[in-house]
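Hey, sorry to bother you again with one of my protein questions. A protein chain has come my way and I'm curious about its shape. It would help a lot if you went through both lines with me. I owe you a coffee for this, so here goes:
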Amino acid sequence: MIGGARAAELSGRIAALGIAHDLGFVRSAERDRRTGVWREERDLELSLRPLIDRAFPPYRPALAPKDQTTVCRCEEISAGTIRDAARSGAAGVNHVKVLTRAGMGRCQGRLCGTTIARLVAQENGQPIEDVGVLTARPPVKPVTLGVLADLVEPESAGTADD
């Protein structure tokens, strides 16, 4: 469920404290006391989501783009190409990725992954949960060579004599 930034932050705090407890750094009573308030606040944040989903449903044509619509902008892959891959036996998004390169571009599927999953699920009559999620490959977020070069400290870069 999409709950927003505050719900995500609270979920992260709850998870972190749970890990600290599992590692023996926090006692159960302390974990429960601190996470209780966070859980209540998170539940309040999440309680608004069904209302928002009903009040602002997704634009239907965006959920089922026409075949000629570009879905993966990085690799210029159309909805029709993704549907063809699904009809050819690709049961999941990563199989579609292998067959078409959809999701392999600079964004690593951050912009197109959900649409690819939805198209594969619709074409194969599967729940969207069954088609999987795109696996990211390094670099997860593209960086320039200049950024990488700046990571090397001059004194540790070595010299020609080394």
